[in-house]
Design brief:
CATH topology: OB fold (Dihydrolipoamide Acetyltransferase, E2P)
Structural class: mainly beta
CATH architecture: Beta Barrel
Largest sheet: 5 strands, antiparallel
Strand order of the largest sheet: 7-5-4-8-9
CATH class: Mainly Beta
Number of strands: 9
Shape: globular
Bound molecules: zinc ion
CATH superfamily: Nucleic acid-binding proteins
Radius of gyration: 20 Å
Helix content: under 10%
Length: about 160
């Protein structure tokens, strides 16, 4: 079968092994730059406000996704939110078992729309429920790099 032949059955799919040297660089953009700088420098989670829709977006963005207004009003939204949804990871990407399960959650910061996907900490999977209140735990300032991982995890509060 050549790469141009059309595959009609799943069992005809064959893997091709190798490496593709693809490199990329992701930029935070204007809103992301300030969002992550505030986390790094001040341990603050910032959102942008659409006054027309009365919505605060976290993570911050430049335009309202509902009315397309440019968002120029920034607000400190605090560090507390609720678990919007979550999952428990028990396997690594290679299929091996993780010694301690990792709880991944979508956390919606109070009073905002959107959310942050992050780990939960200081809690076991059996104690996690949708809707439980959580707060961000930040790394020490000297350890922060301007990444979402400057938040170590969210813990129940
Ligand atoms: Zn709007």
């Amino acid at each position: 079968m050549s790469p141009l032949d059309k595959i009609t059955l799943v069992n005809q799919v064959q893997p091709w092994y190798g490496e593709i040297p693809v490199y990329g660089q992701y930029t935070f953009g204007v809103a992301g730059e300030r969002f992550f700088r505030e986390i790094k420098d001040n341990a603050r989670i910032m959102g942008t406000v659409c006054n027309s829709c009365n919505l605060t977006y976290v993570p911050a963005r430049l335009f309202c996704e509902r009315c397309y207004n440019k968002l120029e009003s920034w607000v400190d939204v605090g560090t507390k939110g609720r678990v919007h949804t979550y999952t428990v990871a028990c396997l690594n990407l290679d299929g091996s078992r993780i010694s301690e399960p990792i709880i991944l959650a979508m956390v919606q910061i109070d009073g905002t729309c959107g959310g942050l996907v992050h780990q939960l900490g200081e809690v076991t999977p059996d104690k996690v429920k949708i809707g439980i209140p959580v707060e961000a735990v930040f790394k020490a300032k000297a350890q922060r790099t301007g990444s979402i991982l400057d938040i170590k995890y969210f813990r129940p509060c």
